[in-house]
Design goal:
Helix content is about 70%, strand content about 0%. The protein is built from 9 helices and no strands.
């Protein structure tokens, strides 16, 4: 039965435990030592931030393919982005950034997020070296094209792996990121 006042309700959100589980997977994957030790990602606040964005982008990209048929994917995407913003805000405050500066930094994080999402989306669609070039610029500070190629190969393999994961598994947080140590990375 459709209630006449349903449109006044807050939209249903993905369960908090699911959001925490998925965001935890993203953070854990982005902290894998191989990225920093073998692939030249700077082990700095910015390097970790950029690797976190790469993994978040990969999952949100997959969820976009599900959104047209499943409202839960839209809710999950928004909840993951909101959790990312909460995490960035918490990290800034833990680093001692003052209340007046936090909104400026959060705006910069948002701009970085949307800029990288656009760059990575365009690059992966273009094929060839475009994704490696975008990764080299955004994650490796413009140096280490060979390492950027290996990171791009990892990103494409991860995208393919997530693409093979069925919708229900994604929405229940029952999936895993593929191991960071893949043939594409280690060659």
């Amino acid at each position: 039965m459709v209630w006449p006042f349903n449109h006044f309700r807050k939209p249903r959100q993905a369960p908090r435990g699911t959001i925490e589980a998925i965001y935890g997977m993203i953070v854990t994957q982005a902290r894998e030592p191989i990225f920093y030790r073998d692939l030249g990602v700077p082990d700095t606040v910015n390097g970790r931030f950029d690797l976190l964005l790469l993994h978040l982008w990969l999952l949100l990209r997959r969820l976009r393919t599900v959104q047209s048929v499943n409202q839960g994917a839209t809710e999950l995407s928004q909840a993951l982005f909101d959790r990312f913003c909460e995490d960035m805000d918490d990290n800034l405050r833990e680093m001692g950034i003052g209340d007046q500066t936090v909104p400026k930094r959060m705006r910069a994080f948002g701009e970085a997020f949307y800029g990288r999402v656009q760059a990575y989306d365009q690059a992966i669609e273009a094929g060839g070296e475009a994704l490696a070039a975008a990764i080299c610029k955004n994650i490796l500070n413009g140096t280490g094209m060979d390492q950027a190629r290996r990171l791009a190969a990892y990103a494409r393999a991860t995208e393919a792996d997530l693409g093979r994961t069925d919708e229900a598994t994604l929405l229940r947080a029952s999936f895993k990121y593929p191991p960071a140590l893949t043939e594409a990375i280690t060659r």
